[in-house]
Amino acid sequence: MRKLLTLTLILISSQFLAIKTAYSQTLLILGDSLSAGYNMPIEQSWPSLLPKQLSALGKPITVINGSISGDTTGNGLDRLPNLLEQHKPNYVLIELGANDGLRGFPPQKINANLEKIFAQIKANNAQPLLMQIQVPPNYGKRYSQAFGSLYPKLSEKHAIPLLPFFLEQVIVKPEWMMKDGLHPKPEAQPWIAEFMAKELQPYL
Q1: What DSSP character marks residue 90?
Q2: 75 φ, ψ (degrees, to nearest 5)
Q3: pTM of the model
Q4: pLDDT at 136
């Protein structure tokens, strides 16, 4: 009887440990206004809605939104060390580059910044995840192609998962976009959270 009780307690402890470990995982989102809840209460932004969607998919995880509107890859690189030290994430989703593209920064510079971001994340024993970013076609075919192609190349070179650009699915619905034509409205955020949860699930 005592052996059975001991075994039961061990099993319960093991299950508790497994649950605790699952919930102790942390995802840091390093992004710009597309993830920062631009012109809306932060609780309406898709990163704030993401934990519930991930839990529904069996991936309970703490989500830290380290996004700031207007950030470039260079800004993200500068802020990253403090974020890594403070939150010690297991995963970092990099949603950066749109502002670099809108300002016409050279693709080589964006590439170099992203590689430095990867290195910092890996040095802190975390897994980088990269989101594909695109710029509007009115920036010229040569620049748009050079910009867009650097993401899959980086993904392949560093064996980092590449996640699709959610804005491409949102921008085709005018009712989901703000008047500036660049940022999703609050009404689009639940869909983005569900979309991103499904895309992130295999890598968490």
Answers
A1: S
A2: -65, -45
A3: 0.87
A4: 82
